[in-house]
Amino acid sequence: NAGVMQNPRHLVRRRGQEARLRCSPMKGHSHVYWYRQLPEEGLKFMVYLQKENIIDESGMPKERFSAEFPKEGPSILRIQQVVRGDSAAYFCASSPQSRTGDYEQYFGPGTRLTVT
Amino acid sequence: DAKTTQPPSMDCAEGRAANLPCNHSTISGNEYVYWYRQIHSQGPQYIIHGLKNNETNEMASLIITEDRKSSTLILPHATLRDTAVYYCIVSGSGGYNKLIFGAGTRLAVHP
Questions:
Q1: What is the pLDDT of residue A28?
Q2: CB of A4 within 8 Å of any CB in chain B?
Q3: pLDDT surpasses 90 at B94
Q4: Angstrom distance (rounded) from CA A68 to CA A76
Q5: What's the CA gap between B20 and B34, in Å, rounded?
Q6: Distance set, CA B53 to CA A38, A103, B5, B71 (Å)
Q7: Which among A9, A90, B33, B101 is most buried, taking Cβ atoms within 10 Å?
Q8: Model confidence over B30-63: pLDDT tens digits?
Q9: What pLDDT does B41 receive?
Q10: HSE of A108, CA atoms in CB hemisphere, 13 A
């Protein structure tokens, strides 16, 4: 079974450009989460999606950030007009459906975004 | 979701058991205890989770006290590759599992 895949692994953008980060969940997983880890800081929840639905975006910055998980294809985290403060590691995680209320998440290797 | 408290750092000798404690005194009845770890700057790795009963898998054992207010993650034979930050997270009451990461415990396994 392939794990959670993220690409690109490293992304360099100049200030003002757009960054698109992709996440393919594990086979059979219908839940996708995005987390951000700023340099020397902890992991912070950003958004939780199911297919074609954003369920919880309470951790997303109000502007420039958006996420989607279309019916076909990977989940995308899009950052418009990037600024230096967006430089971070972005991790995607997926989990299977659960009937018992427990949802272990499996994380991808992350995308390291550097804004110059 | 309930808050957890973990010691900031611990040391363990290679080959010995590593026992990582976690306090979660405000845990509610339908919340699970999850353990993850992050080795250097890699993606976090799921270790184990439990509700009431003790759990064991190929990686670790999880001991949850009867009142569920604390738990201990046990790595039975720590190796140098187990050096990582270990996170104890309580979650699961909202129909999905938004993980709130604290500072965790930085475990250093030494020869």
A1: 87
A2: yes
A3: no
A4: 5
A5: 13
A6: 35, 17, 20, 11
A7: B33
A8: 889 999 999 988 999 999 999 998 999 999 999 9
A9: 85
A10: 29
CA distances from A53 to A30, A31, B48, B60 (A): 11, 10, 28, 35
What residues of A are in contact with residue B92 (Cβ under 8 Å)?
A: 101-103
Beta strands per DSSP E along chain A: 5-7, 10-13, 19-24, 31-37, 43-50, 53-56, 65-68, 75-79, 88-95, 106-107, 111-115
Q: Does B104 touch chain A (CB under 8 A)?
A: yes
Q: Closest to A105 (Cβ–Cβ): which among B42, B97, B104?
A: B97
DSSP SS3 for A86: helix
Query: If 0-12 CB within 10 Å is exposed, 13-18 middle and 19+ buried, where does residue A72 land?
Result: exposed
What digits encode the pLDDT tens for the residues A16-54? Answer: 999 999 999 999 898 999 999 998 888 999 999 998 899
